[in-house]
Amino acid sequence: MTITFITGANKGLGYETARRLIEKGHTVLLGARDAKAGTAAAAELGARFVPIDVTDDDSVAAAAADVEQHEGSIDVLVNNAGVHGPYGDPSGLTAAEVLSVLEVNVVGVVRTTTAFLPLLRRSADPVIINVSSSMGSLAATHDPARAESGVIAPVYTSSKAALTMLTTQYAKALPGIRVNAADPGYTATEFNGYSGPQTVTEGTDAVVGLATEGPGNGSGRFVDRDGEITWS
Ligand SMILES: NC(=O)c1ccc[n+]([C@@H]2O[C@H](COP(=O)([O-])OP(=O)(O)OC[C@H]3O[C@@H](n4cnc5c(N)ncnc54)[C@H](OP(=O)(O)O)[C@@H]3O)[C@@H](O)[C@H]2O)c1
């Protein structure tokens, strides 16, 4: 039985990832920072709710301790929780605005990964999936043919570039663990006012693929639903 922990799984892509992985037989631990939303989502899906705010050391440590006590290990960690922060002209951007995005999208991933690594190391085939974005890809944001090139979101894009680089660094440093980044693609969720053209099912193809592929697949990859993508 594959045990999968997902952050930010009370709605959007995290929720759909939980739904699809349960359908495929995973035991899903549904992480959410809001107890009411997390409990309701877990009850709907048949998951176990684990409270986690990825910006809070104590909350993340408590989540790992909870899983240690109940399941004793995990096989897949999906670092899905994310925020977008301000869009547009950065002339008035404040340090607090920048830090609030990095705290979730980058530091939160490190905090969660550090706390859950001992539990992952007990798995026969440990996997970490970081939900990144082509908005953090230099190739995509510089290609006039791509929608990413028309968006100005200085903090979000930098945070996802950092997350993709973190992924490749973790992959090099942890050869016993498959560490990959997924780009969901532009998907209709609350994150973007449901403006994305993809459904959440399409948007979770890359994550679900990484969570269900067998041992022997590569580490340090950045993939979307069509396969490996460039980000440099
Ligand atoms: N939608 C897209 O087009 C798209 C494209 C590329 C990448 N992504 C990435 O996909 C991931 C999921 O996005 P989504 O579209 O599903 O967005 P969403 O519907 O807004 O969901 C975001 C999730 O992250 C959670 N979250 C935010 N801050 C948190 C914190 N401090 N601790 C724990 N959880 C926190 C939210 O919890 P609350 O409900 O409590 O706020 C929510 O569950 C994000 O990393 C995003 O950057 C999305």
Could you characterize what this model shows?
The protein is of the alpha/beta class. Helices cover 43% and strands 14% of the residues. It contains eight helices and eight strands. The chain has helices at residues 12-23, 35-45, 57-70, 95-120, 138-141, 154-173, 200-203, 205-212, and strands spanning 3-6, 27-32, 48-51, 76-79, 127-131, 178-182, 222-224, 227-228. Strands 3-2-1-4-5-6-7-8 form an eight-stranded mixed β-sheet, sandwiched between helices. α3 (57-70) runs parallel beside α4 (95-120) and α4 (95-120) packs parallel to α6. The protein is globular, with a radius of gyration of 17 Å. NADP nicotinamide-adenine-dinucleotide phosphate (NAP) binds at residues 7-8, 10-14, 32-34, 37, 52-55, 80-83, 104, 108, 131, 133, 184, 186-187, 189-192, 196.
